[in-house]
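This part of the workshop introduces the protein records we will be handling. The question running through the whole workshop is how a given chain folds. To make this concrete, we reproduce a full record directly below:
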Amino acid sequence: MMQAVAATAWGAPEVLQIVDVPVPELLPGEVLVRVEAAGVNPTDWKSRATGGRRLWRDPAILGFDLAGVVEAVADGSHTLEIGDRVFGMPRFPLPAQAYAQLVAAPARQLTRIPDGMGFAEAASLPLAGLTALQALEDAGRVRAGQSVLVCGAAGGVGRLAVQIAVALGAAVTACARPERLSDLAALGASVVGAAPSGIPSAPSLHAVVIDPFGGDRTAALLAWCSAGGTLVSLIPRTSAAVQAEAAASGVALRRIVVEPSERGMARLASLVAEGRLKPRVALELPLIAAADAHRAGERGGLDGKIVLRPWRGADGARLEEEER
């Protein structure tokens, strides 16, 4: 048996409780990972509050992002070995069930952690990093020299998108609250303030615009796209009216849903190893404090990701014993 944190119902953070569950059995092509860190994402607390897309198993162990060490390798897996330090967001949109001591995952949906990168940083990267990468490279098809506008640039996805776009050779404009602009400038972006709506306060035209908002603001951002440009929405739902307006403006409106990608994870790892991508962790908490992590995420205002650490004593102590 092992311990995990599960939602015992859908509702307030207090529904997150420690549960005893069997160690997962491996299918061919899978590895067993001892979790050293689990990233906390907005989709975690939104799902906890409402049940999300009803994709949860029983018990409902949350967590999409994980980093850890391979403990066992099933037949059919030849990409990883016991002892490898790995990270990823396996099975998405199904939960990886990362709020646990051990996770079974398809080996090809995990990537080795670059040397010099800690588990907490690694666990903060997969979902947000793949979202940013796929928005820019796959949907936006960003090329060197193009102008890219990243809205919500100080957020979890936005800050990574700025760094990736700079690495791609784009001329990056970052839109964020005034107190965050100096940090974004240090990452290589030109910066512009945002109105309360999050829309840039100064007009400009760009070949690619990254929209983290959806809704009416997607339509508003069409005005920041140059003719023949691309508006990439991270919200996979837009109205027929907005799609028609984009078509009439000569703008390609593309929506993305992030998906596991061995190539994408390897690309992120390479950018980290080269020093061109630096994830930021704002808060580390023990796994037993998952409810506190969700409260902190819902309050907002953190400059970086929240990460849970299932810290263990030398004797493999239980989570509640460690807390004491």
